[in-house]
Amino acid sequence: MLQCSIKWSNIPGMRRISSSYSARETLPDGRCLYIRAIRPSDRKRLHEEFHKLSAASVRDRFFNVKQDLTPKELTFFTEVDFSMHVALVAELDIDSRRHPVGVGRFVRKQEDPDHSEFAITVSDAMAGQGIGKLLLKQLIDCARRLGVQHLDASVLPQNARMTKLLHRTGLPVKSKIEDGILTYTLDI
Questions:
Q1: Are strands 85-94 and 32-37 parallel, antiparallel or unpaired?
Q2: Cβ(159)–Cβ(60) under 8 Å?
Q3: What residues does each domain of the chain span?
Q4: Inter-residue contact 162 to 154 (CB < 8 Å)
Q5: Per CATH, is 22-105+121-148 categorized as 3.40.630.30?
Q6: pLDDT tens digit string along 135-170?
Q7: pLDDT, tens digit (0-9, with 9 covering 90-100), for 99-135
Q8: DSSP-derived secondary structure for 8-68
Q9: CA dihedral over 38, 43, 45, 48, signed as positive or negative
Q10: Distance (Å, rounded) from C-alpha 57 to C-alpha 123?
Q11: What is the value of pTM for the model shown?
Q12: Nearest-CA neighbor of 86 among 33, 48, 138?
């Protein structure tokens, strides 16, 4: 059941996703996954969750093992405009509170706004439970509403989970490798 609030900007030709965007999805095990727009107030929790990621998960997301996120990165990750940069948080109810279990985002390319670079990170404890698939579904929905035609993902060759996720979308997928990095393009 999708509960999505879309608001369009008053700027001619510029569309936005509302910062109150939210959706409710069901995981294969029956639990409810809440997906919502990221907020600046998520900064501290995002930082805390980063420190819980394994070195392999950090490497798969950032292409190197970094020890921390800089203040500039935290600002970039949590203060988005929902037009050129969309970011969503996936949360589960645990102990009567919602806890973040994943983040997905896309950033439109300035030189070609029909293309957006996207990334998804799921907590190690929740990997393989369908969260990435549902985040990608919501990112695709947001991208389509903004007129994006292609989602691009840069992936390390050993990141089998992301490769499998992209090929299971049912969408046309193209890939190329350059300097040891795979770039997948989903035609949405």
A1: antiparallel
A2: yes
A3: 22-105+121-148
A4: no
A5: yes
A6: 999 999 999 999 999 999 999 999 999 999 999 999
A7: 999 999 999 999 998 999 999 999 999 999 999 999 9
A8: --SSTT-----TT-EEEEE-TTS-EEEEEE--GGGHHHHHHHHTTS-HHHHHHHHSS--S-
A9: positive
A10: 8
A11: 0.88
A12: 138
